[in-house]
Amino acid sequence: MTALSRLLSSFPFRVTLAYMGVFVLAAVLIVSFIAWRANELLTTKVIETLSAEVVGLREQFQTGGPARLRAVVAERAAEPGSALYLLVDDTGRKVAGNLNAIPQALSTPGKGDVFSYTRTFEGNGGARRLAVGVPVAVPGGYTLVVGRDIEDQRQFADTMWQVALWSVGLLSLLGIGAGLLISRIVLTRIDTVSEASRKIMAGDLTRRIPLAGSGDELDRLSESLNAMLGRIEELMAALREVSDNIAHDLKTPLTRLRNRAEAALRSQDDSASYRDGLSKTIEEADELIRTFNSLLLIARLEAGAVAETMTPVDPAAVIADVAELYEPVAEQAGLHLEVSTCEGLQIIANRELVSQAVANLVDNAIKYSTGSKGTQLAVRIGLDRAGETVEITVADSGPGIAPNDRPRALQRFVRLEKSRSQPGSGLGLSLVAAVARLHGGSIRLEDNAPGLKAVLVLPAAAVKTQAEPLATATAS
Amino acid sequence: MRVLVVEDDRETAQFLQRSLRESGHAADIAGDGETGLAMARDDKYDVLIVDRMLPRRDGLSVVQTLRGEGAHTPVLILSALGEVDDRVKGLRAGGDDYLTKPYAYSELLARVEALARRPAPEEQTTRYTVGDLALDRLSHKVTRGGEPILLQPREFRLLEYLMRHAGQVVTRTMLLENVWDYHFDPQTNVIDVHISRLRSKIDKGFAKPLLHTVRGAGYMIRDGSE
Hints:
By secondary structure, chain A is α+β, with helices and mostly antiparallel strands. Chain A is built from ten helices and twelve strands.
């Protein structure tokens, strides 16, 4: 597309054109109406004047008879100017005046109208001119026509018309010019945006759309686009980080898996080592699948795709069930599992996901408590109401997490150095964080002195039961 | 038992067919939804294994159509989609069990056998016995050799599930789903510890153990003399 055709097909230009079209049409209509009205008014005025003159001439006839009328008409007709007269007798013969015959338009006596005639007396070659006249019947069979030449008036109107047409033409030209100019300005700015977008699409995600600095709607649009680009860049960075982490944490077990299979294949021995190699391979594969499932689940949760499965859930029941599931494992690890919950709380949640989050926290607590041997270690699971939220606390007396490491511990795949030796994908806490976010809550890591206290904060739901005084206070 | 495998991936289907035959079952393969539906209508199968995503007619629609026609053949739905709502959709369509890919064959076999031998609702008894172990579902009493055994509520449900599937392999996941109603993976071997606790209550002090560990698969409650 050429630059001009782009300009002509641009939106501002088309708007200008449409606007101008409407404007010109309106102007033509208004001017025409005014011209028509003015013309009609003038004609009426002239006819009134002529009627007054007719009255005067009739008086002349009454006082002096036909001869006097003829003399007066002849006298007035001889005067130069725009006055027109004609007096004919009953045979239709011209008696006096400066018109040759009664014009067709004035055949009805008493009814004035516009007519055209050929002027002969000023030696202009008999040009047809426009006039207004009134015919009257005079006693004695005479017909008198009194008229006024309005050719000058018509010429003036013509000139006005020409001026009007020229003005409209000029306005149109100016309008097109202005349209082109506006289009050019807007196009240039939009081109800047498109150009920047193209460069960004080509891979330069750090680029931003330049602002004109005027704060107008195009600048505001650019600002929104820039904000969007910022968000995309953030997400891309997060994605890259995740894929780096996946590459790292999935490649290691994949390599192990491959090595094991290769070693089994190389071994010269009996089928026993094959079996061993294969079963180890399956174990590794299962571990990989587990990591993969967790990753997928976190991704799904962060996309917010399971919101429709939310139901009212009693957090105390969730905790009791999870504690019941883990109690034998804790006991086996020499830990005491303490549960303290309170009744009458409710959250709107996916029971399965919240259970899994609490299970992950308890699992971690048991895992890390076993590391340090002490007298009667305990894992405490608590449930409290804090304002509009419900707090599920899982506290252990293990090594804990240093304050600066806590934010990192919630990220995907992050396994703090101390925990490298422990089995696990490093996704446990980030899954808890994702579950919390999905439910509009959060996860807090605190010092349990010694140990770690993980607090899962979820928004409390109003309980509908009448029996609970706590519920009636918050049910509004 | 006759199994129909409705699965479009040839290799997976053949692996399942071979494995099921090795386990002593007859297995046929249908490569797409329409064929699967037509074959399932023959009504000669004890269990259908239906993949969710199939060419020509998707798995859920196959199951829905069969159920609409009044067929009661148990269906195990296989799917790569494993989220909570996917499972709910699968079961709502008329599936009896839902297994997420990738799965261990032992898991699939255990579930297929459990489905095939699932008693009809009217056949469910109130009393299960395995050897000299007896469980009464109404009075919640468990006895071994006439001696009462005290169980926690969850242990009772665990034993009840195992005894309902006596002689069949029951996997850890099946226990987690049916006894605890959890569909996630608790990472640690929580189920094993529950089982060993239960075992110490029902088998300890008796010459013949009833609760067996099936290596690489799960658990089975069985009277050795059967």
